[in-house]
Structures are given as C-alpha cells and as structure tokens.
Write a structure and sequence with these properties.
This protein starts with 12 loop residues before the first strand and ends in a 9-residue tail after the last strand. It has about 110 residues and is α+β, with helices and mostly antiparallel strands. About 30% of the residues lie in helices and about 35% in strands.
Length: about 110
C-alpha cells in the first residue's frame, strides 16, 4: 500500500474536512468506509482525498473537489446519505464538517 498526500492541485478548488470521533461499537463500519472511496471517485469534479485515524478513534478525512457543484453531487449520493445516517445513529460520538475554498496549493516530492 502506498502512503502519499494528494499532490498540489491547480486552484481554485474546495476542500471538505470531515473530522470525527468514533464510538466503541462499529458494526458494519469497515464495509461502508471501504465503499465510500469508490463512490466518491464517480463524482464529476472529485479531485482526491486523504484520510487518517488515531488509535483512539479521532479521524480526519479531507476530500478535494473542483467546485461546489461537485460537493453538492456527493452530498446527494443516496448511498453516501445512508452512510451519514448510520454514522449519526451508530458509529460517531461526534463529527464536524468544514468546507473551504483553496486559493493556493503546492507539494514536494523527494527524488
């Protein structure tokens, strides 16, 4: 498995930051979490994502989208909406979502 950040993207674009704290019981979470990347890749204007989770359950996922229409398309996805409902009902103690317009972006790669 390769671990690397999303390379610099030509601005402007949007970053959607989803920060969550998981509950102790996560029945069905892994299957749903594994499905979301394939679904979001189908959204026109999706640019990539990065995700990390601590052993204590704090998770941060940043999704990158070309425009607000792409974010809205992801929000309207029925399977994503079902995952959100289940997350609120079962998997998360709390979460926050922040949407930001990115005006500058760059990256570095050794080698």
């Amino acid at each position: 498995m390769s671990i690397e950040p999303v390379a610099g993207i030509e601005p402007p674009y949007y970053a959607v930051v989803f920060t969550s704290v998981q509950r102790a019981t996560l029945d069905g979470y892994e299957e749903t979490a594994a499905r979301m990347p394939a679904l979001v890749r189908e959204v026109p204007g999706f640019l990539g994502y990065e995700s990390a989770r601590t052993p204590g359950g704090l998770g941060i996922t940043v999704g990158y989208f070309r425009d607000e229409e792409a974010i809205a398309a992801w929000q309207r996805n029925g399977e994503h909406q079902a995952a959100q409902r289940r997350g609120r009902a079962e998997w998360y103690e709390n979460y926050s979502v922040h949407v930001a317009k990115v005006e500058r972006s760059y990256s570095f790669e050794r080698g």
